[in-house]
Amino acid sequence: EFGRRFIPIRQYMAKYGLADAGITPTEQDIADMANGTVPTSLRYDGVHWLAAGYTILANIIFQRLKELEWF
Fold first, then answer.
1. Which residues have C-beta within 8 Å of that of residue 4, sequence separation ≥ 6?
2. I need a surface site. Which of 3, 18, 34, 52 has the fewest CB within 10 A?
3. pLDDT single digits (tens) 19-67
4. How far is residue 55's CA from residue 31's CA, in Å, rounded to a whole number?
C-alpha cells in the first residue's frame, strides 16, 4: 500500500543492524535475529534502542529520502 515509502525497520535491524553497527553478535543476539527480533546488543530495553540503533535508523531514513528525491 505504501510502496517505497514504507521502511520495514524491525526486519532490517534484525537482519543487518549488528553488521551496520560493527558489533559482533553474542549468543543472545543470534537467538534474537533467528526470531526476527532486534538484537539485544542494539536495545536498551524491550522497546528502546541504544544510540547505535538510532544512528542506523537515521541513516536508513536519510537514504530513503534521497532515493525518493524528497529533499
1. 64, 67, 68
2. 3
3. 999 999 999 999 999 999 999 999 999 899 999 999 999 999 999 999 9
4. 23
Q: What angle do CA 62, 68, 71 make, to 5 degrees?
A: 60
Q: How would you class 38 by CB atoms within 10 Å of its CB: exposed for 0-12, middle for 13-18, buried for 19 or more?
A: buried
pTM: 0.87
The total number of structural domains in the chain stands at 1
Type of residue found at 26: T
Domain that holds residue 56: 3-67
Cell of 29: 543476539
- Assess contact for 23 and 42: CB atoms under 8 A: yes
